[in-house]
Amino acid sequence: MQAFRKLDTAAASLTLANIDTDQIIPARFMRAPRSTDHGQFLFHDMRRGPDGEPRDDFVLNTPEFAKAGVLVADTNFGCGSSREAAVYALHDAGIRCVIAPSFGDIFYSNATKNGLLPVALDRETVKTIWRTLETANSARIEIDLEAQTVHLPDGTTHGFEIDPFKKKCLLEGLVEIDLTLLHSDEIDDHERASAEARPWIGTIG
Amino acid sequence: MHQSNRTQKSKAVGQPTTLFEKIWQSHAILEREDGTTLLSIDRHLCHEGSFHAFDKLKAQGRSVRRPDLTVAIADHYVSTNAPETGNEDPSRREVIERLTANTEATGIRLYGIGDPEQGIVHVVGPEQGITLPGIVLVCGDSHTATHGALGCLAFGIGASEVAHVLATQTLWQEKPQSLRITVDGPLGPGVVAKDVILHLISVIGANGATGSMIEYAGSTIRALSMEGRMTVCNMSIEAGGKAGMIAPDEKTFAYLKGRRFSPDGDDWDQAVADWQTLVTDPGARFDREVLVDAADIAPTVTWGTSPEETLAITGLVPDPGNQPDALRRSALEATLAYMGLKPGTALTDIMVDRVFIGSCTNARIEDLRAAASIAKGRKVAVPAIIVPGSTLIKLQAETEGLDRIFIEAGFEWRGTGCSMCVGMNGDITPPQERCASTSNRNFKGRQGPGSRTHLMSPAMAAAAAVTGRITDVRDLA
Ligand code: SF4
């Protein structure tokens, strides 16, 4: 996984609540293997009109934000389906961090396993960020995962919470399976004990 | 530091615990310093979308730890018109073939094309007795919460986690918050499980249960059939919930008896004795409690593009003019524009273009019976398809003659699969068309680009099919 340490990048605002994963990447693009550039599918039906042409009024279509690395979204971002391709689409489009008041649980977890940092801040702070980005000379945000801070162009800094283990994995680009396999003995023991305690569960092979 | 049965019982005696905590504790292998727990997984269900996880595993040179605790089911990409081909479209068929190849390479049992027990993953699990009370079950699909209706902990995961389960048969999980929703009282005429869950989502909101597991309790929930309980648990994710669960009872045991992978003989008796302990103890604490009176629930439909945007069938499309918050007002205007709706329109004045009766929410036998009871002796006014939740359900419906009722009324009687719930197999609602649907998501474009979805119960969807408009089923009964 690509490590995440610091970011200093243009930040785009997306002020809609409940952006679901069907909007982040519509189902019809999910046949693509991971090696395909998923960035081309990002917000596909939101950023194009019915004729397939890019809409001028969609933030990521504007020259200023085409290369944004941070998205500042509203409540419940990434709700809906478990499709990890939603994270691939953001990641491949160059978005390495999403700031929102809350996230869909599965999306949040998928993000941290693919080098995309989800930052949950209360809605008032998110609204402040939208306003700052709108009025500041440069709509850039600095993010420091080690320090757990978001630094805005108006000079203010906001702290955020993240589970220490997810933070470590992101900072170092670790693959979780390797760490879990260090506990193989405990897993074996537990498996044996529960097969004894609940033999009726059996197998389904 | 794994939990033995003994520590679990002494804890249950010492201090009251919830159903969820009992299952969590018996599956906790170890706890990290930050409190994250390594959980053992009893059952893992895969489908075509799992190819990302198999690819990851291959790339990392790993093998599947417990193929004997894993099954794979083809459902999302299977054609409902020509199921024997998988799908006539080569690029869709190819995704099904990837699943076949991955299961062959790893020794995982596959319910594939032409299998007499194939169906939608969340229908097949309980139907085959793969889902059992007290287990931890995961699947790379957000509607995995469905299985919690049998009293297990079941939740959806992403592709990286699917790969983690394949490789280790475990998952790291933070303990979710707990929310108990208690619904009490008898349901009114024409009000069914789908109305209950749509109503609950509107009460707590589309993110009302984010980070939480939900236990559904109360006399209304207890009175639901197993099918109805699955409908309720299915849509837990539409309120943001990680899992939904209902304590197992005699109905659960009766449902499971004799299914393919259900325990039998001595194992059955032992199992039932254990399952009877799977209840939330009196006095156990939840982080949040919500109480709902069943009398407040009417036949319910969605009008917008979030599952929280629901109304009783007697309601009117909301007016953005009444919304004081400017951001919310413009969002509501955009939603109504997308849905092609005018403020103040009576829901029953909304014409529909097509009807979809199917999905893991509402394609079980009871759902098909309810739809057939409305279809009987009537004729469809718009194209309508019926997609049974599994091949076995299709067969049972045919044995009961439901297929004849539907066909005579002009419905299309299709093969099983996810179909127009998500449109991956090619069954879509065309742009700007309005679909009355028994599925679970009314997201923009969910049923096809530009599609407009109204979620409702099977009988309500059948009523819309025969009238061509959103209809109060109580007027047809
Ligand atoms: S029927 Fe719909 S919600 Fe259920 S598993 Fe299939 S696509 Fe997902």
Principal-axes geometry of chain B comes out as: globular
Number of strands of chain A: 7
What percentage of the residues of chain A does DSSP assign to strands (E)?
15-25%
Mind summarizing the main beta sheet of chain A?
7 strands, mixed
Please mark out the parts of chain A with pLDDT under 50 across 5 or more consecutive residues, or reply none: none
CATH fourth-tier homologous superfamily of the largest domain in chain B: Aconitase, domain 3
Name the largest protein-protein interface in this structure. A-B, 62 and 87 residues
Task: Kindly name the structural category of chain A.
Answer: alpha/beta
As laid out across the biggest beta sheet of chain A, the strand order is 4-3-2-1-5-6-7
Layout of strands and helices, then pairs:
The complex is a heterodimer of chains A (205) and B (477).
Chain A: E1 6-14, H1 21-24, H2 44-47, E2 70-73, H3 85-92, E3 97-100, H4 105-112, E4 117-120, H5 123-135, E5 140-144, E6 149-151, E7 157-159, H6 164-172, H7 176-180, H8 184-197
Parallel strand pairs in A: 1-2, 2-3, 3-4
Antiparallel strand pairs in A: 1-5, 5-6, 6-7
Chain B: H1 5-14, H2 19-27, E1 28-31, E2 37-40, E3 43-46, H3 51-59, E4 70-73, H4 90-106, E5 109-111, H5 121-127, E6 136-139, E7 153-156, H6 159-168, E8 170-173, E9 177-184, H7 193-204, E10 212-217, H8 219-223, H9 226-234, E11 243-245, H10 250-256, H11 265-275, E12 288-293, E13 300-302, E14 310-312, H12 326-339, E15 354-357, H13 365-375, E16 384-386, H14 391-399, H15 402-408, E17 412-413, E18 434-437, E19 452-455, H16 458-467
Parallel strand pairs in B: 3-4, 3-6, 4-5, 6-7, 9-10, 9-12, 10-11, 15-16, 15-18, 16-17, 18-19
Antiparallel strand pairs in B: 1-2, 2-8, 13-14
Helix pairs in contact in B: 3-6, 7-9, 13-15, 13-16
The complex binds iron/sulfur cluster (SF4).
Iron/sulfur cluster binds at residues 75-76, 120-122, 141, 143, 359-360, 418, 421-422, 439-440 of chain B.
